[in-house]
Write a structure and sequence with these properties.
This protein is mostly beta strands and about 130 residues long. About 5% of the residues lie in helices and about 45% in strands. The relative contact order is 0.16.
Length: about 130
């Protein structure tokens, strides 16, 4: 709840770094499989991408209108998916742009769903 992401060496039990640029509570982390990247989602409505070795923030992904509940890299680390209560966004990790946006309305254009709808993400593999 202190808005700090800490990196630990689990073998030695030592703190090796911190990421401190979110203005809200960090909700979720995702480690890239192919690159030295970490993504963090936050109550500040953003996803931040970090270099996992240096702790330097490389970009902030903005566009969510609520708390970003989760984030997950694609298998090849070229895309990142994130969600708030109403929207799932797929991002291009290189450009930081939204590639696709999925809303509750996209799912049910005929019969309206309740306005409060929560997405849950577990994994993402487009191919």
């Amino acid at each position: 709840q202190d808005k700090v992401c800490r990196v630990w060496d689990t073998r030695k039990g030592n703190l090796t770094g911190t990421f401190t640029r979110h203005s809200g509570i960090i909700i979720c982390l995702s480690f890239s499989r192919c690159k030295n990247l970490v993504a963090s989602s936050s109550s500040d409505k953003t996803v931040k991408i970090w270099d996992s070795l240096t702790g330097v923030e490389s970009q902030t992904l903005s566009g969510h209108t609520g708390i970003v509940l989760s984030c997950q890299y694609s298998y090849d680390s070229q895309r990142l998916v994130s969600n708030d209560e109403y929207v799932v966004r797929i991002w291009n990790v290189t450009t930081g742009l939204t590639v696709q946006k999925l809303t509750v309305e996209n799912l049910s254009p005929v019969s309206p769903l309740p306005r409060r709808y929560t997405w849950t993400l577990t994994t993402f593999c487009p191919e």
